[in-house]
Fold this sequence. Notes:
Structural class: alpha/beta
Order of helices and strands: HEEEHEHEHHH
Distance between the termini: 38 Å
Radius of gyration: 19 Å
Number of helices: 6
Low-confidence stretches: none
Helix content: 25-40%
Largest sheet: 5 strands, mixed
Amino acid sequence: SRLHPKVQKIFNDCNNVIEVNIPTKLENGEEENIVGYRAQHNNILGPYKGGIRYVPNLHVDDTTTLAKWMTIKCALQDLPLGGGKGGIKFDPNDPKYTEKDIERITRKYTQGLVDHIGPTKDIPAPDVNTNSKMMDWISDEYCKITRSEDINVVTGKTLINGGIQGRTEATGNGIMFSILKWCEVNNFSLENKSFIIQGFGNVGYHIAKQ
């Protein structure tokens, strides 16, 4: 590596890694202790920024690694933000979890993070298996606890609750615009070409749609 050892040391370590235990009684009567994480890598450029994912195989190392990537992405785009990433270790698509269960889990996760997030501290966003409705729950719970109207604690909210038009498709569209620009610069035609999209979530769907 060409980085100075001191810089490499700073980059290797996350500033904070928060673990949240979420004891939950499901609507079906089962009791679970679900765990959530939030990794805050580096905020030298500004507040931490990064998604929250709900996946059953989540490991704390996933969040720390992805938080580091967010630091790099924000720096490369000259954004006044640092790298963060979070998640809860469960599968919201499992039919045993009702919408009320998922909301309760999301709100308890928010309660555990409330001192660590905020518009000037750390701004979560949707990621794998999370959406605008869940961001609304986080925003609402945060505002209740802090007795504030700081809805900018998260991005990706529904339009009626302060979200931005076009946010859902923005990432996929951005990738497609980049591909089209590359084709233009390199005099490459996409006509009659086949392609593979690895993953067909929110991003892959909007790439294909473009």
